[in-house]
Amino acid sequence: MSAMSNSNFSRRSLLRATAGMAAAGTLAACGSNNGRGGSGGGSGTQLTQYFHAYGEAGTEQALKRYAAAYKKANVNTNWITGNNFESALFAALLTSKAPDVFEFHPQLQLVKSGQVADLTDLIDPVKSDFNPNDIKSHTVDGKIYGIRMIDDPQFFYYRKSMLEKAKVGVPTTLDELIEAAAKLTTNKVKGIFLGNDFSAIQNNIIWSAGADTISEKNEIAYHTDGVVEGLKKLRTLFASGNVLLDAPTDFWDPSALNQGLCAIQWGGMWSMPAMQQALGDDLGIFPFPKIGSAGKQSVYNGGWSIFVNAKGKNVDAAKEYVKWLWLDQTQYQEDWATSYGFHIPPRTSIANKATKLKSGLPAEGVKLFTDYGHFDNIAYDQTMQNAFSEVIASSVRKNGDPEKALDTCDKKVGVELKKLFG
Amino acid sequence: MSTTTTRGVAQPAPAKASQARPRRGLRGNATFNFWLFTGPFLIGLAIFVFVPIVWSIWLSFFDARYTVTPSHFIGFDNYKQILTNSEFPDSLVTFTVFAAFIVPTTWALSLGLALLVNRLRFMRAFFRSVFFLPTAVSYVAAALIWKMSIFSGVRFGLANTVIGWFGADTVAWVSNPTPPWYWLVIVTLRLWIQSGFYMILFLAALQNIPTELYEAAAIDGAKKGWQTFRYITLPQLRATSTAVVLLLLIAAYQAFDEFFNLIGQKATWAQTPLMVLYKSALGTSQDYGAGSAGAVVLSVLICLVTLVQGKFMGFGRGDESK
Question: What confidence tens digit (pLDDT) does each residue in B191-249 have?
Fold first, then answer.
């Protein structure tokens, strides 16, 4: 008995020792995993950049090609697929593996929390070459916090042949748009596609009604009778059955129009090459129509900017890289703006050279951008935008009272404005 | 069987170990063994559960935006905001409605499937596997299939094709909340994924019911079908049913994946508590203070519900009285 238990025991102690070692090994691995990807040798600094996955073929390769051409640091590109780029980016920014360089939209909150570095001294020498609006939208208290890479106007695309067949003119008012959608709808094709949740046009409904998101004095400016009227009209459009909903792709993808699911689609300038390839000349564009008598047509000039993580480990190296790529290397900037999807280069010198944007439909797009475009307001931050997309949800997609929805939105935006400006 | 034998041999071991202590050093020490085996797990528990809970409570009293190491103390403002100026209270209602519907439905469906499969004379293993397979699918993948192919809003989506045969117009199943077809999408998805697993639990319980009971009932004149089911099968399944209802309730509490992927965050309806918290803390708002405040409120609620439930259902009481 004792012999048996003895042998049993030594076997168990062996097991115990092994388990202990395994546990210790796991913990040790945890400990050493905190460092950032090895020493990197003496070859130079290691930089990480975060980009959302652009839909156009070749964009990822292009970005990595630019990064590889930079000799002073080793730049590692994180290409974030899926539609949660913001979440991935912000979660990463809190960790020790935070990106040194990332693309995003200008957000006052990022500046206030000290997340993005001041890039004024980099931009100053070439400031006059930039579209003044792109400088303004990145400026807080006289300092410039980001470099605009591309401007992306968003407007309506339409199939000329379908409008001709239905004897519909290009709509200039929201009423005409609703009427056009009705006439264009057949049992195969829906009249219009505004994105699956309508949030793509949430700023345009404000601008087209002659209002603004928030005013120069940073007060609520969207709560007007015109906007209420627009919301009510948009509700009739949503409920009319002439709108394409639950499409497999969203507004930022050219597929809905290309595959003949709709006659008119809201989209970005970046989709233009793919649409032209699929539809040839059967393609036109127009701005978001005006709402009510005080309204005017509008285009949303979105886009992407590059920022330097001020809390990162290599702020200076990151600044140098950003200066090199997005200020000095003009041939890359032109390639990025015009070789894949179409984007408008924010720098006049590059825009002047961009022959692809000089004629035909791209030139019309540039004209809409200049004539009707509204740029981002750095103070109209994500929380406020989320609050307004709830207005769209509850009063356009759901049959709620727009006034009430706007009041709820006012409360949320009010809290946010108070936090930002006191 | 083998486990019991091993345990039987192992039981007297510590006494022997103390005899041999001088030779074996620390190895025989019961306290050391306790820490050796529970230590790694406790460290994990502390780092991944206790620290975040405490951190979250701490964050809920600060203005923590774009940071998890805030410095600006704001008292109960976050709680005020999450309870009065957000979708959080509505989301609790949404969740309750959802749970009140999905729990009994899944229970009934999986019991029904188990009864059917149990009666099969051949190909039982095949059907058991077929119904169980969806359990292996992730909610995210299933949500994408449901959204993009079955309940797509275009005319060639599966559901729209089917209703098209009867001359109906295309329906936007998810985007348009009136009528609330999105519940059909969510409920069918959840039923498809979940019922197979609970069917297996019921099946095991059904096979454990002694046949003598049915025979005795038959002799006493009980009719096959409803009568036997009501007075023999159902009471015999009570323990399993309680466990299934509890598991279903927990699963409903955790609802996130399919709601997030199907409904999205640009809506004001069908937002579960976790989605609202995700939106305020981890989404684009990055307000960890408000998110944490909501998480604390939710935790307190879950604690209360569990306590009340324990009182009524007596879950776990049996062990203590032994």
Answer: 999 999 999 999 999 999 999 999 999 998 888 888 899 999 999 998 899 889 888 98
- Indicate whether A220 and A276 sit together in one domain: yes
Q: What secondary structure, in 3-state letters, does B150-210 show?
A: HCCCCCCCHHHHHHHHCCCCCCCCCCCCCCCCHHHHHHHHHHHHHHHHHHHHHHHHHHHCC
- In CATH, what number is assigned to the domain containing residue A179? 3.40.190.10
Task: Report yes or no on B303 lying in a domain.
Answer: no
Nearest to B154 among A86, A187, A261 (CB): A261
To probe the interface with B, which of A246, A258, A419 has the most B CB atoms within 10 Å?
A: A246
Asked, for residue A295, whether it belongs to a domain, the answer is yes
Q: Tell me how many domains chain A contains.
A: 2
User: Does A261 touch chain B if contact means CB atoms closer than 8 Å?
Assistant: yes
Distance from CA of A23 to the nearest CA of B (A): 7
A102 φψ region: left (φ > 0), alpha (ψ -120 to 50), beta (else)? beta
A116 with A52, same domain? yes
User: Are A174 and A293 found together in one domain?
Assistant: yes
Q: A393 vs B269: CB contact, 8 Å cut-off?
A: yes
- Total domains, chain B: 1
d(CA A118, CA A123): 10
Low-confidence ranges of chain A (pLDDT < 50): 1-9, 11-12, 14-15, 17-18, 20-42
- Of B36, B177, B268, Cβ closest to residue A20: B36
- Has residue A77 been placed in a domain? yes
Q: A307-349 pLDDT, tens per residue?
A: 999 999 999 999 999 999 999 999 999 999 999 999 999 999 9
State chain A's mean pLDDT as an integer: 88
Q: Are residues A307 and A365 in the same domain?
A: yes
CB-CB neighbors (< 8 A) of B65 in chain A? 109, 113, 419
Among residues A279, A300, A321, the one where a domain terminates is A300
Pair (A236, A306) in one structural domain: no
- Whether B281 is in a domain gets the answer no
Which backbone phi and psi does A171 adopt, to 5 degrees? -65, 140
List phi, psi (to 5°) of B31.
Answer: -65, -45
CATH number, domain containing residue B196 = 1.10.3720.10
Q: Assess if residue B234 is contained within a domain.
A: yes
Residues of chain B with confidence (pLDDT) below 70: 1-28, 313-322
Whether B123 maps to a domain, the answer reads yes
A398 and B155 within 8 Å at the Cβ level: the answer is no
Contacts of B67 in chain A (CB under 8 A): 94, 113
Q: A52 in a domain, yes or no?
A: yes
Of B139, B112, B117, which is closest to residue B128 (Cα–Cα)?
A: B117
Rounded to two decimals, the pTM is 0.82
- Residues A362-414 pLDDT 10s: 999 999 999 999 999 999 988 899 999 999 999 999 999 999 999 999 999 99
ipTM score assigned to the predicted complex: 0.77
- The CA distance from B225 to A399, in Å, is 48
- Residue type present at position B37: F
Whether residues A161 and A104 share a domain: the answer is no
- Which residues are CB-neighbours of B67 under 8 A, at least 6 positions away? A94, A113, B288
In a domain, A380, yes or no: no
Domain of B112 in residue numbering reads as: 95-269
CA distances from A321 to A73, A100, A118, A184, B260 (A): 8, 10, 14, 50, 37
Q: How far is A28 from chain B (nearest CA, A)?
A: 12
Domain hosting A359: range is 45-152+302-375
